[in-house]
Design brief:
- The complex is a heterodimer of chains A (398) and B (381).
- With 398 residues, chain A is an alpha+beta fold.
- Chain A has one domain: Cytochrome-c3 Hydrogenase, chain B (Orthogonal Bundle).
- Chain A is globular and about 75 Å long.
- Chain A starts with 19 loop residues before the first helix and ends with a helix.
- With 381 residues, chain B is mainly alpha-helical.
- Chain B has one domain.
- Chain B contains 14 helices and no strands.
- The chains are: A alpha+beta (398), B mainly alpha (381).
- Chains A and B meet through helix 5, helix 6, helix 8 and helix 16 of A and helix 8 and helix 14 of B.
Chain lengths: 398, 381
Amino acid sequence: MVEAKTVETQTLPQSAPGEREFMLDVRTQDMEVNMGPQHPATHGVMRILVRADGEVCTGAQPHLGYLHRCAEKIGENVEWLQYLPYTDRYDYLAAMNNNLGYSMAVEKLMGIEIPRRALMIRTICAELNRIGSHLIAFGTYGLDIGAFTPFLYMFREREWMMALFEKICGARLTYSYIRIGGVFNDAPPGWLSEVERFCDTFEQKWQEYVDLLMVNHIFVQRTANIGVISRAMALDFGLTGPMLRGSGVDWDLRRDMPYELYAEIWKDGVFSIPLGRGEHGTLGDCWDRSYVRVMEMIESIKIVRWCLGAITPGPVIADIPKTLRVPAGEAYVGIENPRGELGHYVVSDGGKVAVRCRVRGPSFTNLAVLEELMPGALLADAVAIIGSTDIVVGETDR
Amino acid sequence: MLLGLLGAAQTGTNPIREFLEGVKPEAVPGWAVALTAIGIGVGITVAVISVIAMFGTWLERKVSGHIQCRYGPMRAGWHGWLQPIADGVKLLLKEDLVPKGADRVLYVIAPALVLASVLAAMAVYPLAPGFFFADIDLGIFFILAMTSTTTIGVVMAGWSSNSKWSLYGSMREAAQVVAYEIPLGLSLLVPILVAGTFNLLEVSQAQAGFFGLNWYVWPWVNPFMLPAFVLFFIAILAETKRAPFDLPEAESELVAGFMTEYSGIRWSFFFMEEYAAMYLYSVVGAFFFFGGFESPLTWAAIEAFGDGSVMHQVAAGTTLVVKGFAGVFLMMWLRWTLPRVRIDQVMTLGYKYLTPLALVCVLGAGLWELFLAPVLPWRQG
């Protein structure tokens, strides 16, 4: 393991001349605390070296790489279609979105026309997965703050979401369902009506979460004015997703760089883009980021409902050969993952294997801001800040 | 601690000792009787604490389970009632680990000290109106004094573990307990002012009659009693390290706080202390605000079998257990609902709000007792 770069120490407070000798006697030393790799608040195997003066953090340094699985390199050694299951594994909470991003990048190179029903099912799956991912994000955030029960309530709804995915593709976490050219198979009979029922139930339960946790006085006290990311800072660090929108920057790839059906959905005025408003404190604090995630869930439900209303029968996958030969060229596709912009940059030389397969993971970029936010925070706030960045370590390390 | 227990057992009257005095043959010396009485008393206390703590852990798991849409333990016995026993056996059989670099002596003593403090406090806990080990005049004072020594054990555990998380946990515990001892003591002063005694049994007797309308919590007895009870309840949450004040063992921040390095039976000592303390404080709350032994069950038993009969004792003891666990249930309910507050918020709440409010309550209750209580018709007699 590489030795940690020393975090800049806090300078001692200036003392009056008379106190000088006394101050030297009682000089304190900052404590270095290893948060992780096994720590309940790091959401996976990540190590954060916290330098603390009592309860106050004076510096923090995230250490990555505990979950590195060479995903990108694998992408350059296996066939196009064979890489798809590996995409499931970087952001394992939003596997559908990862599949979608990679498939779209390859489709862009190949110039495939996707059947409309496939686009519909893709959108439904991606949005349902976004709900599931935000449920985990918000639930574990409550857990970080100390509320255990809402987390399990959210698991109840996520369980249903996973059961829906199990019905459509057989897997609960790593789906590999969205394929290059469409989706693997058509939705089973009755699936779409069950999604409708899920939407109805979820809207009620969503209100429960808001009442139980979002507006809970202790929760607000713990998250408001903590870990404030200003607009400029959010842009400087290249944050994306709820981290960016929590700071009030109106940027969502589904609207601003629309892909698949989103241009159409946006034109129909189906969904809006929730932004942090600094309702309980400074704009861009932890509460705002949670607020954006919670509101996005209900926006996703609206998108799913639109798709359920507009879906028509038809083929679900374009006619593509078993062994793909992708035309030479390069393509970058960025999609709005639950955590931000998930970019896939693929280069092909016309062969069966990619020459370069680069992934831009939102968790990785969003994590960078941590070092900036931690100094001055209390140890409990540090946990709240880490939780609000909503990282998935599988994606930061890949 | 043990000395305190012995001292408490020797002072005042004690039904066990009286019974033994009555049946002892001439040849047996007096000190042997006293020692035997103490032995029996300690044995019963330990047994009661263990049963309460075991039931507490089971109840916690069932309550949390049902709050969270699941069942909790279901396999060991009917609805998992044997689970605490299975857990206890498992913990007993675990390897006795002391981390490298730990201060071995302190590390071993700490859990025993923590448990001993609550055991000692239990010495003045009357199981029934006529069944107690030590009926001392400073009963509640003794309980508060003994339970506050828990902190020493926790700080010892945190310091000796040679772990930074443990140290954080124990420092938080020290800060928190010091801050909340004050409102706890002050809020208890309000019923003590009204009752005019520190003795638990006498406080219970003072609230007898009028079918529970004399319970101290009612505003017509003293309007400052209800706010005092709220303050008392918040303070005992902090004292027993329960959510939302579970900072010393905040699992998402400090791994397991001061217990991080503990395992096996030593770890279970901390747990037993927690549940026993929760129960003990709830019982104190029941004595000082909710009529102690008074309940419809007790009145019925007195009506049917006579005052001081065995059935009366059983009914009164049951009443107290029910009231105690009602408080424990409330604490569990809060734990599984609320998020955790931050250390500076805990301190702010304790020093800036609870302590002044408790002082106001004491002042108000004192003035009420001085000027209004002598003229209110329902306070005479």
